[in-house]
Design brief:
alpha/beta; pyruvate-formate lyase- activating enzyme; OB fold (Dihydrolipoamide Acetyltransferase, E2P); 3 domains; six-stranded parallel beta sheet; five-stranded mixed β-barrel; 12 helices; binds 5'-deoxyadenosine; binds iron/sulfur cluster
Length: about 450
């Protein structure tokens, strides 16, 4: 392998979930702190980090084609690092198959990127997929990102072992970051201009810690503490598991004004036998009861969810139960996916894998129902007044885009700046956004 010089510019490309987006931001801050510059749009970068996702579909194949596309016209390539969950799951294979890749770095090891880059620049090919790495966050530079809405990873990993899911294998066991580190990081983000913080975790509502007085607290306690930061206006959290939805967290939705009325609570399916085969440890009924309790605490809350269609063994009747679930809950938003067998997960080798045409048809029906409900939710918001957090300029002159408390995109015109909280009346609804008028 040829020696290359230490990179001066970098690009981090993140795929997949918000936790990957967060990791990508922290990698960028880490590389920036080493004196490297982020390459602009369309500019050639000396170092490219592909921060990959392994949750569905042919993620690894996509990584190989991305690597191929990075080759320059003269046959050279940038220094390529494959990071994220594909790196964790298939690191060795990537090193064998893609000779241009110089570094493979798992989600728990990316704080060691600088030393890996040093070695890779000297001609070595380096793999680091060690986990867990409690030291990771402590070894990263302080937050520098400036944005009105910021992510903060509070919890990583998963012990739930849903039978279709790779997360417990790629991200490891559940760990909660310490309370004081989170308050410090939140304070930094607020100092840089964040008005809204979204707490992230694969099982964010499983977060536990000790507050400043040494008392054991859960996510509700963390939310209550963050709400005390004067310049922070909004707190959100995602993604939650139904089994970790405590009474205290539900109560926080009625008691903490800064906690936004939005809950992403995946159900995955509406049929009990399928939920059992998925190892979800809740039933359709217990999920519906839980949502009822959340709605009692915060009647206007927007509920969102995730669904998988075509899990092995899913009959027409099972799928109808999923459609029934949608009709019962009336989601404000939801993500739905075709089941994708993930190597190494129990469901991948189950009998009765479902034909792709069947999955396609089910997915279409499900998505039509979800879009119907999303539009109905947005229409029901018309006439409400609320605050919108301004996130960016719109396409038209003087137009701004922001988010309502229910995470809807709203657009309006006026003389504002990113990060402003603007009181608006919601005027007209589409399935994906609303128009608004400043009050
Ligand atoms: N196939 C399809 N969808 C999946 N998800 C997780 N694993 C799979 C899989 N193997 C979906 C779930 C989860 C979301 C993040 O991705 O709905 O909630
Ligand atoms: Fe995956 Fe289930 Fe854990 Fe969510 S709860 S990350 S779906 S194993």
């Amino acid at each position: 392998m040829n020696k290359v010089s230490i990179p001066k510019s970098f690009r981090v490309k993140s795929f997949g979930c918000q936790m990957n987006v967060y990791d990508g931001e922290r990698m960028a801050e880490l590389l920036g702190a080493q004196g490297m510059d982020a390459a602009g749009e369309g500019e050639d970068a000396d170092l490219v980090v592909l921060n990959t996702c392994h949750i569905r579909e042919k993620a690894a194949e996509k990584v190989y084609s991305d690597i191929g596309r990075l080759r320059r016209e003269d046959g050279s390539s940038p220094l390529i690092a494959v990071a994220g969950c594909v790196a964790q799951a298939e690191g060795e294979e990537i090193m064998k198959r893609a000779k241009d890749v110089r570094m493979v770095v798992g989600p728990q090891a990316y704080h060691r990127l600088p030393e890996m880059i040093g070695k890779a620049s000297a001609g070595e090919r380096v793999t680091d997929t060690d986990m867990p790495a409690e030291a990771k966050f402590g070894a990263l530079p302080a937050r520098r990102k400036r944005a009105p809405s910021a992510f903060l990873t509070v919890q990583e990993g998963c012990d739930k072992f849903c039978t279709y899911c790779v997360v417990p294998y790629t991200r490891g066991a559940e760990i909660s970051r310490p309370f004081s580190d989170l308050i410090d990081e939140a304070q930094k983000l607020v100092e840089q201009g964040a008005r809204e913080i979204t707490l992230l975790g694969q099982n964010v509502n499983a977060w536990t810690g000790e507050d400043a007085k040494g008392r054991d607290i859960g996510l509700d306690g963390l939310v209550r503490e963050l709400a005390k930061l004067p310049d922070l206006a909004r707190v959100r959290y995602t993604t939650s598991h139904p089994n970790d939805m405590t009474d205290a967290l539900i109560a926080a939705h009625s008691e903490v004004d800064k906690l936004m009325p939005y809950l992403h609570l995946p159900v995955q399916a509406g049929s009990d036998p399928i939920l059992a085969a998925m190892n979800r440890s809740h039933t359709a009924e217990s999920y519906i009861r839980l949502i009822e309790r959340v709605r009692e605490a915060r009647p206007d809350i927007a509920i969102s969810g995730d669904f998988i269609v075509g899990f092995p063994g899913e009959t027409d009747a099972d799928f109808e139960a999923t459609m029934q679930m949608v009709d019962t809950i009336r989601y404000a938003a939801a993500f739905s996916f075709k089941y994708s067998p993930r190597p190494g997960t129990p469901a991948a080798t189950m009998d009765d894998q479902i034909a792709v045409e069947v999955m396609d048809e089910r997915l279409q029906r499900l998505q039509a129902a979800i879009t119907r409900d999303q539009l109905a939710f947005n229409r029901a918001s018309v006439g409400k007044t609320c605050q919108v957090l301004v996130e960016r300029k719109g396409r038209r002159e003087g137009q701004w885009l922001g988010k309502t408390p229910w995470l809807q995109s709203a657009h309006f015109t006026g003389d504002y700046a990113v990060g402003d909280l603007v009181e608006v009346e919601l005027l007209e609804a589409g399935p994906n956004s609303l128009s608004a008028r400043v009050c």
